[in-house]
Specification:
The protein is mainly α. It has two domains: 121 residues, Arc Repressor Mutant, subunit A (Orthogonal Bundle); 51 residues, no CATH class. 67% of the residues lie in helices and 7% in strands. A three-stranded antiparallel sheet has the order 1-3-2. A hairpin with a 7-residue loop joins strand 2 and strand 3. Helix 2 packs across helix 4 and helix 2 crosses helix 5. It is globular, with a radius of gyration of 19 Å.
């Protein structure tokens, strides 16, 4: 008789597998648009924090400076971002989203919405909310375990606020 693994071991594998499969399928979905998931991730982040110094961007995304520099190079050659010297410290390069990128981001958001709708097909809204709440709590616990230098992209408060507003609207309509 084979013993069932502990729930926490299965949960870890499941989280890892879902994340890996989502990344893989998302890359395939974005391929026709000529952008990679990594480029999209950096572009979306910059669009929320336009003018961020390149080094700070690398730190906030928890990616090496060279890797972020390469991603920004590709985004810049595509016309999606520009680098400008900081007016106070010319050694600092700030990254800005272009007008072309803003239109492209709208298209990407629509594709992302379609992609996400496909992967949650058949799952009830309450289940999705419970899963989201549980994952967010795990994220907070993991960040609390860090030495305080870990960053989370600054979206938690924004995510929680948006989720709360959406739930209130849904209850008001019901």
């Amino acid at each position: 008789m084979v013993d069932q693994p502990d729930w926490d071991l299965r949960l870890g594998y499941l989280i890892h597998d879902v994340s890996r499969l989502r990344r893989m399928m998302f890359d395939r979905a974005l391929a026709p648009l000529g952008i990679t998931r990594s480029q999209w991730w950096v572009l979306a982040f910059i669009s929320r924090k336009d003018g961020l110094p390149q080094v700070q961007l690398a730190n906030e995304l928890d990616v090496g400076k060279v890797a972020v520099g390469n991603l920004i190079d590709r985004l810049e050659s595509s016309g999606f971002v520009i680098r400008q010297a900081d007016p106070v410290d010319r050694r600092v390069k700030r990254v800005y989203v272009t007008k072309q990128a803003r239109g492209f981001l709208e298209k990407l958001r629509k594709e992302t919405d379609k992609f996400n709708a496909t992967i949650v097909n058949g799952i009830e809204r309450k289940q999705l909310e419970a899963a989201s709440d549980a994952l967010l709590a795990m994220k907070h616990n993991l960040l609390a375990m860090s030495d305080g230098t870990a960053t989370d992209g600054g979206e938690d408060e924004e995510e929680e606020t948006q989720r709360s507003k959406t739930r209130k609207k849904r209850r008001a309509v019901a």
